[in-house]
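lol ok so funny story. i was supposed to be doing the assay writeup but got distracted and ended up predicting the structure for this chain instead. priorities right. anyway since i did it might as well share w the group, maybe its usefull for someone
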Amino acid sequence: MRPSHRIEITNDGSPTLVSGIYQTEYHSKHGAVTESLHVFLREGFSFYLDRYNPKKINLLEYGFGTGLNAYLTALASEKGPFVICDSLELHPLDRPLISTFYQKLFPGKKKENSSYFLDIHDSKWNETVGIHPYFTLKKIQTDFRNFTPSKIYDLVFFDAFGPGTQADLWTEEIFKPLWKNMSEGGVLVTYCVQGDFRRMLQRVGFDCQKLPGPPGKREMLRAVKKSN
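and the output, tada:
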């Protein structure tokens, strides 16, 4: 029997999960939504839009988790560009837990713009599903180490548990094939700025930039694929 997760409320009022498997948080205790908006939406999605003004983005997320990043990206793309999102997760969360998480994320009557969240979680695994006219999602149940990219990705959200928890997910074996399957100038964002990880990305072929982090974390990382 899998150890149970528990929900905790973070400093911005939004919920996070504490993993029963790894005993660590899915999102920052300093603000779950605040962290996702800062790291993945502002410094990833919005940065890519401002830099390239694309009509379409192929997005790959390592760590579907609670679906928070996918939900916020669906909201941000309501008027375009067209986002095709593949999101990887080895341990999908149980539906009753997601229902409780949803109630904590949208307490009381604050349910406006919340339908995408449940649509995302109700979508079938390993199938491409339209969430709205500008956002499609394919949740892929897989171990990151077994995933071979089959398309070219423009934007990557790397939201795995940290190197201190799952060191084998932050290795060259993961990022070398990923680099090969990213578009020139493609962008990867993550909360982790660990020196060994950053140097590995540079060896693989990324230009790495440390940026101010969300509350509770001094820095985050944005990596851009260099041309050959």
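Residues 11 and 30 are 5 Å apart (CA to CA). The domain at 33-93+115-225 is CATH 3.40.50.150 (Rossmann fold).
back to the writeup now i swear
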